[in-house]
Design goal:
Elements (H helix, E strand, L loop, with lengths): L9 H11 L3 E2 L1 E6 L5 E6 L2 E5 L4 E7 L8 H9 L1 E6 L5 H7 L9 H5 L3 E3 L6 E3 L4 E14 L2 E13 L13 H4 L2 E3 L5 E3 L11 H7 L7
Antiparallel strand pairs: 1-11, 2-3, 2-6, 4-5, 5-10, 6-9, 7-8, 9-10, 11-12
Length: 214
């Protein structure tokens, strides 16, 4: 089957792309307006893209009525925000935060989440999240009339005690229990993993009985 994605409308393009590029990590983004009002909303077009500096990206989209979402306005105006990672423990609360509440309603309160000050940015963090990345805006790129990409530098991290080995800086994945986004109303747990070692060329040759064949 071939799909000429350029011939599809925007909704169908999103439908196909978001169904195939899975699972995706979820960013529960907390931001603060220039007037000091907190906002919390989830985004699954999110990932890390580098180090030195540590960089993360967010795909931001306007509301269905084409008004700009509070998260986008806050990132553009203040340049600061926090990305709270989502685990099984706050998955339901994250989903509640996706509700388009009136502007005077605090999503965190509705979801039963606790907000606390960040260290280096003027945004709050979700205390119940397994980890929070404090971010400063590098750039916001407009890629379509209703779509922007926010590029941010991580300037501070908050990680739940016991998740990271202080010596190796490795995550205990069994304690972390992150949740991934699939598509439509589907999500996935990450309790089942398998390991594959990346081989050097010499190791590959030995494994395939091809010593000396180079």
């Amino acid at each position: 089957m071939k799909i000429n994605i350029r011939e599809l409308g925007a909704n169908d393009q999103y439908k196909v792309m978001s169904s195939l590029v899975v699972p995706r990590p979820i960013a529960l983004v907390s931001s603060r307006s220039s007037a000091g009002i907190d906002n919390v909303a989830p985004y699954s077009l999110f990932n890390m893209f580098g180090e030195a500096p540590p960089v993360v990206i967010l795909g931001l989209q306007d509301h269905h009525d084409r008004t700009v979402k509070d998260t986008t306005v806050n990132i553009v105006e203040t340049g600061e925000y926090a990305i709270n990672l989502v685990d099984e423990g706050i998955a339901q609360a994250m989903n509640i935060c996706a509700t388009e509440f009136p502007e005077d309603v605090n999503e965190a309160d509705m979801a039963g989440l606790t907000l606390a000050p960040c260290d280096l940015v003027k945004a709050s963090r979700v205390v119940e999240a397994p980890a929070t990345l404090e971010c400063r805006r590098i750039a916001v790129v407009q890629i379509a009339p209703q779509r922007k990409i926010a590029i941010g530098e991580v300037v501070m991290m908050h990680v739940r005690d016991g998740l990271i080995d202080p010596g190796t800086l490795r995550i205990d994945i069994s304690a972390y229990k992150p949740v991934g986004r699939l598509f439509a109303n589907l999500y996935t747990r990450t309790r089942e993993q398998f390991e594959m070692k990346r081989l050097s060329y010499d190791e590959w040759l030995k494994q395939n009985g091809a010593e000396g064949q180079a």
